[in-house]
Write a sequence for this structure.
């Protein structure tokens, strides 16, 4: 987990609206509906859900496992079985040759599609699962949420899971949003909204 | 103008913030006095990325490596390219962080936080204690970055931008041409 060692990547969000009552019971109830479910014994290609922050194998969310003072820390676990297209094609070609040899006629387009889907499903079931766990920190008092992980795909997965779990909208703290939040004393929103991009060099004129 | 248009139009704020940090890192030995944190030191560590800010044909200049010479980056800035990514070193009192900031979303990657607990020591405590300790130093970093952004906004959105800051940046760019 990146919060224990190594480097950290961090994306910041604000909550669009405060949650009704973020008690430990309230949060735990919502988390359990979207807890991580293992795909180890299934042919599923992917699974995503919440786990306890200090134990990615646990998703019970008992007292004291995710609520720390005014901060909620959650584990976001994504398990994926990835089968490269090249591998599917290689096994499909072998299977197609064998099938045509047995039936002594070329496979129809529908038969080829069906065979390819079967080959892919067989490979997915045999490929070991790769696991990735990122952390999410929710500062309840300030309504700020951090995703500690990198990549657009992870971000999209997180935003989707968050909305499904809590029904709360997230606003990415991009420069304009952060500027609205941090406007210095004596500076109005109109000054921010009217600001134009600067030319740093102006053809050499100072 | 609606919020979506404003967010898109003001994306230059992230680029200009990184440019301003770079300028600050080369004047006053990188020292910026933030009232609530005291003096904070900021350096460009070992990577700076500049890009043309327009859609269509995108040109990128990447300056990286130890003992970074930013002459090429300054040339790119003079040509109108915008700073889109910077690897920073930031020091406040006894704490030092290294991080990459991306201008577009101000997200931080590769954040190397200072060690405040000795992992070998008995008093390090539980995993939860270690996590909370690490989060505390990351929160400190975020507060400093917010204070720096506020300082930038105070300069950028007031008369001092046209009167002092922008001419200062232009002088700095010209002086490095010689």
């Amino acid at each position: 987990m990146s919060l224990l060692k190594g480097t950290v990547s961090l994306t910041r969000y604000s909550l669009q609206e405060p949650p009704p009552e973020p008690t430990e019971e309230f949060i735990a109830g919502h988390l359990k509906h979207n807890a991580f479910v293992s795909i180890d014994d299934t042919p599923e290609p992917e699974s995503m859900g919440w786990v306890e922050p200090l134990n990615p194998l646990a998703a019970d969310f008992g007292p004291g496992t995710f609520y720390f003072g005014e901060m909620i820390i959650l584990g976001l676990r994504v398990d994926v079985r990835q089968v490269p297209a090249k591998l599917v094609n290689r096994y499909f070609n072998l299977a197609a040759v064998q099938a045509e040899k047995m039936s002594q006629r070329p496979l129809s387009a529908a038969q080829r599609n069906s065979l390819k889907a079967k080959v892919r499903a067989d490979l997915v079931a045999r490929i070991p699962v790769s696991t990735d766990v990122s952390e999410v920190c929710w500062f309840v008092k300030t309504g700020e949420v951090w995703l500690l992980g990198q990549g657009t795909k992870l971000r999209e997965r997180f935003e989707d899971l968050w909305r499904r779990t809590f029904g709360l909208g997230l606003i990415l703290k991009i420069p304009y949003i952060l500027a609205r939040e941090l406007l210095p004393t004596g500076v109005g929103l109109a000054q921010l909204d009217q600001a134009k991009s600067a030319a740093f060099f102006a053809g050499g004129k100072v | 103008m609606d919020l979506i248009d404003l967010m898109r139009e003001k994306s230059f704020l992230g680029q200009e913030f990184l440019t301003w940090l770079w300028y600050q890192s080369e004047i006053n030995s990188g020292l910026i006095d933030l009232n609530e944190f005291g003096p904070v030191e900021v350096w460009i560590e070992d990577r700076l990325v500049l890009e043309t800010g327009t859609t269509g044909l995108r040109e990128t200049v990447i300056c990286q490596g130890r003992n970074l010479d930013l002459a090429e980056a300054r040339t790119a800035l003079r040509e109108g390219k915008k700073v889109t990514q910077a690897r920073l070193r930031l020091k406040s009192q006894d704490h030092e962080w290294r991080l990459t900031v991306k201008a577009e979303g101000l997200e931080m990657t590769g954040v190397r936080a200072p060690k405040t607990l000795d992992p070998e020591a008995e008093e390090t405590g539980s995993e939860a204690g270690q996590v909370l300790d690490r989060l505390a130093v990351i929160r400190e970093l975020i507060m400093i970055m917010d204070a720096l952004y506020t300082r930038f906004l105070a300069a950028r959105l007031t008369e001092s931008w046209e009167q002092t800051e922008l001419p200062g940046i232009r002088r700095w760019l010209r002086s490095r041409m010689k």
